[in-house]
Amino acid sequence: MVKRALLIAVSFLSACGASSSGADVATSASDLTEQSDLVSTEDSSVSPSDVATDGLSQGEVGSVDVSGGDGTVSPPSLVGTWGQMQHSATVTDSPLGGGTFNTLVHSLHLVVITLEPDGSLMAHHSMCDIQAESDFAQTETIIPAAYIHSLEPYSRKVTANWATKEFTGARVTEVKGCVLDDPENDDLPTSEDDTRVMDQDGDGHPGMTLQISGLINGDLYVVERNWTELTGTIVNQGRIDGLLSWGVEQNKLGSSNPLLSMDIASWVDPDPNKSTFEMARVDDGDGCAELITHQGSLFPSP
Questions:
Q1: Quick one: 192 exposed, middle or buried, by C-beta within 10 A (0-12, 13-18, 19+)?
Q2: What count of other Cβ atoms lies within 10 Å of the Cβ of residue 116?
Q3: Strand pairing partners for 177?
Q4: How much is the pTM?
Q5: Main-chain phi, psi angles of 58, to 5 degrees
Q6: What SS3 class is residue 79?
């Protein structure tokens, strides 16, 4: 097992009771835009012969289409508005020494699935909220509303097969706090003087600001890159569950407390079954405010 040495904020963000003040985010389907610094590693070109009327495989069992009067069967549609909860599992070396602790980060997304002209499906994501639960209670990372509001929407190709109930979401990479010519492969900046760094959250500090409270207090200014990929099962027309593959990198640009400069190793939990995602269909027109209000019923705790 290879451990990825991440900065202390990653350890705390992905492992120490992270919370968000982004409950007032008002993103809805009509607000979705493309993000220039996102890249999908899967070829977006799809032949119409590869998909049925909704990006679904031919011969799938669906609802009866009576509009034509011929009794033909068409596949169910995933097009519409969904809530998605991603659960990202990490393991982190304790800053107090003597072992590790586990964290599960819960990221709430508004997802709008659209049918493209070539017959493929695209899922358009907007971040609504981030929460976490951890074995380590001494420190909390607070994610400011400015951080949440500054996260750009992104899109990924998705596929669905009602015959096998298989659902996939192509790998997408996000870059935060800087602009990279090659978001997948360029090195992240290590200094605020790097011309690629930007004040994405608009708080007057380079990169993105995280607030640390508890054992250590202060603000940390970082740049980040993370990727996600989805493999799941279609439970029914309103529910999809599955596994989340993901990774993250983070570099520190500065801090308000020198103690935040210490590096603590944190890595994705090697058990692939611990990082998961859930999707639940919601009303078209619902936004982040509605998802945050109803997330307890949409994604009840096990």
A1: middle
A2: 13
A3: none
A4: 0.77
A5: -65, 150
A6: coil
| Alpha carbons 269 and 3: distance in angstroms, whole number | 10
Do the Cβ atoms of 203 and 209 come closer than 8 Å?
A: yes
Cα–Cα distances in Å, from 268 out to 18, 100, 227, 250, 271? Answer: 16, 13, 12, 13, 9
- What residue type is assigned to position 12 of the chain? F
Q: Angle 239-143-211 (CA atoms, 0-180°, nearest 5)? A: 160
Going residue by residue through the chain, which has 302 residues, state the pLDDT in tens, using 9 for 90 and above: 433 333 334 433 433 334 333 433 333 444 443 333 444 444 433 333 333 334 443 333 333 233 334 454 556 899 999 999 999 999 988 877 778 888 888 999 999 999 999 999 999 999 999 887 888 878 777 888 899 899 999 999 999 999 999 999 999 999 999 999 999 999 999 999 999 999 999 999 999 999 888 888 999 999 999 999 999 999 999 999 999 999 999 999 999 999 888 887 889 999 999 999 999 999 999 999 999 999 999 999 86
Which residue matches tokens 């009067």?
Answer: 69
For residue 182, count other CB atoms closer than 10 A to its CB: 8
List of residues 6+ apart from 29 with CB closer than 8 A: 81, 110, 112, 124, 284, 285, 287
Strand partners, 284: none
Distance between CA 118 and CA 21 in Å, rounded? 39
Round to whole Å and give the CA distance between 73 and 84. 29
Question: Cα dist. 292→25, 27, 54 in Å?
Answer: 9, 11, 29
Look up residue 188 and give its two tokens.
């992240």
Q: Where are the domains of the chain?
A: 5-60+72-298
Task: Tell which residue, 227, 246, 237, 244, has the closest CA to residue 278.
Answer: 244
CB atoms within 10 A of CB 86: 21
**H or E segment to which residue 221 belongs:** strand 218-236
In the chain, which ranges are continuous DSSP H helix? 8-13, 145-150, 288-298
Distance CA 48, CA 11 (A): 44
